[in-house]
Amino acid sequence: MSSTRQQTSTNSGNTSLTATKKETVRVPLQLDVNSQKYFVTGYPEMVRVALSGPAALVTTTSNTQNFKVYASLKGLGTGTHTVKLHVEGLNKDIKETLHPKTIKVNVQPRKSQTFKIESEFNKGNIAEGYVAGRPTTGISSVKATGAANEIARIDKVVAQIIVPQNAKTTINSQAIIEALDKNGKTVNVILTPSTTNASLPITADGKSKKRLSLSLRPKMAV
Predict the structure, then answer these.
(1) 115 near 145, Cβ under 8 Å?
(2) How confident is the model at residue 118 (pLDDT cuts 50, 70, 90)?
(3) Phi, psi angle pair for 50, to nearest 5°
(4) Can you list the pairs that 206-210 forms with residues at least 24 positions away whose Cβ atoms lie under 8 Å?
(5) 3/42 Cα distance (integer angstroms)
(6) Where are the beta strands (DSSP E) in 12-125?
(7) pLDDT at 3 > cutoff 80
């Protein structure tokens, strides 16, 4: 949203028109932190900045967003902290108002760990008379990176294979990889990679066909 107005000023008998403008933009929030040592959660990815000043400057700044909003976490230990946001790179003739002005973050030691991948799919979606074979994936393990306390929560890492209702043919697709805790809830970590090629063979159940064949065979008279 933006608004523009004109102010009339008199200087040495000359009248001039100076256009001013207000506009709110959304910009990514940057963190000043040792990302090799710490992993930070809880902060918003984007923040709103209300700009006001000369119309041309505000328009250019809004279009280029050649400034940054950051939170300095240097000197903070692990735990939850409330920190102030800062703006850098704005023209001195532009005034800014941040929304929010402070944020709450959780700083934890950074940790990476490798996990084997398990495959999961909804067996109830396999058509009657058909069976699923052993699923395979393009990779066998992934690297999970995040806060040490979140990594400790991981019970398993699974590749979720989407099976359509009443499936009768082999499925070859991209499967989303998820880290789950012991209750089956998603753990907030970064997985590398986050997807994999997956294959789930689905074939007709030979036993079912044999039973059907026997039931249709004519009975011999005694």
Answers:
(1) no
(2) very high
(3) -90, 120
(4) 208/129, 209/129
(5) 33
(6) 14-32, 38-41, 46-54, 68-72, 79-88, 95-99, 102-120
(7) no
* Residue 208 parent element (H or E): helix 206-216
Taking the C-alpha atoms of 183, 186, 192 and 197 in order, what is their torsion angle to the nearest 10 degrees? 80
Peptide bond into 201 cis (omega under 30): no
Asked if pLDDT for residue 41 goes beyond 80, the answer is: yes
Question: Tell me, what's the pLDDT at 205?
Answer: 81
CA distances from 68 to 33, 36, 65, 71, 92 (A): 15, 22, 8, 10, 14
Q: What is the spatial distance between Cα 186 and Cα 132, in angstroms, rounded to a whole number?
A: 26
Q: Please give the average per-residue pLDDT across 92-99, as a whole number.
A: 96
Q: How many residues does the chain have?
A: 222
Query: Torsions phi, psi of 98, nearest 5?
Result: -90, 145
Average pLDDT over residues 47-70: 95
The percent of residues in the chain predicted with pLDDT above 70, rounded, is: 84
pTM for the complete prediction? Answer: 0.68
Backbone CA torsion sign across 42, 72, 45, 102:
positive
Dihedral over alpha carbons 182, 184, 186, 190 (to 10 degrees): 60
